[in-house]
Amino acid sequence: MKVWSTEIRAIDPLDGRMKTWCGPNIPAISKADAQKYCRLHLGFCKVGDEIVAEIPCKPNSFDPDFDNMIDYEISQNN
User: From the CA atom positions of the chain, what is the Rg in Å?
Assistant: First the structure.
């Protein structure tokens, strides 16, 4: 199953400015299905793009840690 990003537009309580925030990742077969899920359960979220991988950083740095990468394309092809 594919994984989709979501975003939320909301006012930052610290400075009062409108900002775009990351929302939860949504597993769904298609972008349309992810949008239906958001409409029913997370009305404040907008579906973004498909997430194909997550690459964490090495501890205490901004260097990519490819050994601990989560590859969503491999899992959806199984």
Answer: 15
Q: State both tokens at 26.
A: 């949504």
Report the alpha-carbon distance of residue 74 to residue 11 in Å, rounded: 37
Strand (E) or helix (H) holding 28: strand 26-28
Name the 3-class secondary structure at 30: coil
The 10s digit of each residue's pLDDT in 51-77 is: 999 999 999 999 999 999 988 877 555
Tens digit of each residue's pLDDT (9 = 90 or more) over 14-45: 999 999 999 999 999 999 999 999 999 988 88
Segments forming the whole domain that contains residue 49: 2-76
